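Lab notebook, bench 4. Still working through the backlog of constructs that have no structural model yet. Next entry is a single chain of 378 residues. Request: give me the structure tokens for it.
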Amino acid sequence: MNPAPPVVRSELIYKTYWLYWRLLGVEGEYPFRSLVDALNFFFITFWYPAHLILELFNKRSMEVFKSLHFTSECLFCSLKFVCFRWKLDEIKAIEKLLKELDQRAEIDEDRRFFDQNTRQAAEMLSKSYLVAATSAIVTGTAAGLFSSGRNLMYPGWFPYDVRASPLVFWISFSYQAVGAALSILQNLANDSYPPMTFCVVAGHVKLLAMRLSRIGHDMEVSRKDTARHLIENIEDHRKLMEIVRLLRSTLYLSQLGQFFSSGINISITLINILFFAENHFAITYYAVFFAAMLIELFPSCYYGTLMSKEFDKLAYAIFSSNWLGMGQGYCRSLVILMQLTVVEVNIKAGGMIIIGMNAFFATVRMAYSFFALAMSFR
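Model written out:
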């Protein structure tokens, strides 16, 4: 006999996500949190990309490529971090609605589906982002430590001579190493949220479809209870559409920056691997960074498409219910719900780019175009 599946609890999936925000000083209650938040905002969110950008103006055009990928990533990371921080109240509202939908998974079939599919996929996404981030931190630091000569991890502007003494150099190097790690931590908070949420929402849409398709097939349930079940599912659909509305607002600017960032950085990283990697650590670092760019973008697009497909299946689930012989009022409610479900549901970055697989392939094509353009100046 199979053990009973665990109760659906979406908040457990976001446990690691909120840990990132606590480490960055944005959420939680602990001593000196406000100080951590202020230091992180100035030295990492603002100054870290700024000191990288300022140094670009002191470099020759070909040398710019060596650090442009990370400079671009840090700039877009800070912009996305500000966008997500601005929308934290909406993220919390989404989580509250998901908790309410969790309570609607009352039977073992629904709970088992969520546990074996949605929960496992979302946790795999969270772990994949964490592994990619850790790999980028380790390989980036190693590439800086084992580079020829006394060089910083990335060309950056400092208001003093970083080579004035070994102590000054290692302080500057440590700032870049710690800053890179914290920037990547910010990126974890930025990039892990969209695919995980798309995955969880897609799971709840699937559970709604399963509940809708079961309506009316149990002959022991009265018509009054059947009508009540339909109204409850209509309310669930309303909550899901409210989540979609909040997601459209939350991801409006951040995902637009994600598409531009990924397209630019993928092409620049390819150029660095081919022409500027000076040792095996550098090659490994650029390869890991390239993979991280794909991991950053692909899951959001894949689960964005999956979520849209699950919404498309709701109309068929309604038709699969046993609606024959029901009263006029019941059928009127059913028709209204079906009309609501035939509307295409998607999330658009910047109100222009649908977050889906078509956007992923378009971004890869854009990256190749940047790469071919850069190669023409070789």
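Notes after review: The beta strands are 348-349, 353-354. The first strand starts at residue 348 and ends at 349. Flag for follow-up if needed.
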